[in-house]
Amino acid sequence: MLAACVTSGDGGSLASADGPLSSEYLTRYAEPDPTPASFLECHGFGCAETSRVGLSSGEWGKVKAQLAGPARDARAERAKIARAVATMQKIVGAKTGTGVHQWTHENMMIKPNLGDPTQLDCIDEAVNTWTYMTMMERAHLFRFHSVATLGYAGLPNDTNPRNTAVLREKKGGALYAVDASLVDGGEPPLVMPLSVWAGAWPPKLADIENAPGKPARPVKTAAKTAALAHD
Asked: pTM for the full model?
């Protein structure tokens, strides 16, 4: 039997002017000032355990390399951020033992943990992704986004409680879920509008910006434009 990820409705206030956003799990579990040299990773379901992690300059350089080169727009930057988060997961997982196969995912649902401290649920993933993206933002690696508090959805409406890290577009303020709990460790977290993520579950693959197997948007370059005009 599948079990949904625990939601932050277990005693904390979820009220937010931004809709389904909450800082509760960040207050409980996140390190407020993470740096590449020293930060915490949550694991074991519900941040039952934490591990202190530090990256070498070379390891942090691999993360920054995923964001190198200016993104052409906000959507392209989100794709870069997702790849950078996946790179962080691989590096951190090798240090803490959480890089093993995450068997907890099935059809966008979370299976019971059965006490395995190497496994991650949506609370672990949301807090960790927030930590990774916060370090990236503070290193001035984002052009189009800032990191918001965590998103939540589920009970009592669709009985599938879930949590996610969130990006906010600087222009216009649109919110996007960056949900690493929906994929295996070391794979880019799925990115979609927060309204889609908080809506009917599971979301349609067409509404996920970087769904596996979904073709990337064509890039319009000056050379391509000129060639089309010539034809």
From this structure: 0.86
